[in-house]
Design goal:
This protein is of the alpha+beta class. It contains 9 helices and 11 strands. The protein has 2 domains: 5-49 and 284-303, no CATH class; 61-265, Protein Transport Mog1p, Chain A (3-Layer(aba) Sandwich), CATH 3.40.1000. Helix 1 (5-15) packs parallel to helix 9.
Length: 312
């Protein structure tokens, strides 16, 4: 069961706001593996019950765009999206202005499932993207440049307590739909010593003052499913009148400093929103903390204590 320890602490403290982790170590003996798994499952189920999914039309941001949730998917709001990315999957806190506007995920799955992939949505108001360079880009040369850029950016990650990242290559090469002003590509990434690589499938929807980022995050085995759904996903997200690419007014609106190539390259880690499913496996040591919080948890200790409740 994969989950970051911080989210467990948040959940348990919610049951006992006056208690801290130090107190918890002195409360209840260590749990068995079975009790531990039941405790984790209980709190994941409790967290899942707080998530509200939508399957119809949703307004994004301050009404700048809409998403008509495609068949086979459901939508989770931005607040819960940020929580999943940082507290469950262990990503760095989001930058200012880059909070999630929501997530798409397969309708049959939970956002807390180990095997799930999600499509996180953000908005960057960096200006109108001049797409005149789109036909001239050498994507293999661009890939090499991005791999080189990772050297300095990995120093930033390590200094801030996160594992380094290797850009393995294109999982799907960039493609730009000049008519509909939508760009998509996929990267294969390796985070630290993780055995399985991470898929980041990136979509950019260009608008008058910036662009929507749809970042599909999952394991590499999700690639074919995402590619199979890419057309309905692309069609589902559009800017509203007044914010469309065609609404650009050169006398009023700012032009971005980058074109299509710059959107793809970006700052590979910090600006382009690379995220991963990097939830941590809790070592048995953490069972001391876990059961300590559970012991104060609104009468639920009995779920994990051996024997009859009347036993001493």
């Amino acid at each position: 069961m994969k989950i970051k320890i911080s989210i467990l602490a948040i959940l348990f403290v919610s049951f006992s706001p006056k208690m801290d982790a130090t107190d918890s170590l002195q409360v209840v003996p260590e749990m068995t593996d079975e009790e531990y798994e039941r405790a984790i499952a209980y709190f994941l189920d409790s967290l899942e019950s707080t998530l509200v999914y939508q399957t119809e039309k949703v307004s994004l941001g301050d009404g700048i765009a809409n998403i008509n949730v495609p068949a086979g998917f459901k939508y989770l709001n931005g607040k819960d999206g940020d929580m999943i990315l940082t507290d469950i999957w262990g990503n760095p806190p989001v930058e200012d202005g880059m909070h999630s506007l929501g997530m798409l995920l397969p309708e049959a799955q939970s956002a807390l499932d180990d095997s799930v992939y999600v499509i996180n949505i953000t908005y960057s108001e960096d200006g109108y993207i001049d797409d005149s360079d789109a036909k001239e880009i050498d994507y293999e040369e661009l890939l090499e440049t991005m791999q080189d850029d990772l050297v300095a950016e990995n120093e930033y990650r390590i200094q801030n307590g996160y594992e380094e990242v290797a850009l393995v290559g294109w999982a799907s090469p960039p493609f730009y739909d000049a008519e509909n002003k939508k760009l998509h590509w996929a990267k294969e990434l390796k985070f630290g010593s993780m055995e399985s690589n991470t898929l980041n499938y990136n979509i950019r929807v260009l608008g008058r003052k910036g662009y929507l980022n749809l970042n599909a995050i999952g394991e590499m085995y999700s690639l074919e499913e995402i590619k199979g759904n890419i057309n309905p996903i692309l069609a589902s997200v559009n800017f509203v009148e007044g914010n469309k690419y065609s609404d650009f007014d050169p006398s009023l609106d700012k032009v971005a400093a980058v074109g299509i190539g710059g959107l793809i390259a970006g700052k590979v880690l910090m600006k382009a929103g690379i995220l991963a499913k990097i939830g941590l496996v809790l070592a048995k040591f953490w069972k001391f903390i876990l059961i300590g919080f559970v012991a104060f948890g609104a009468g639920i200790k009995k779920l994990f204590v051996k024997g009859d409740a009347t036993e001493a």
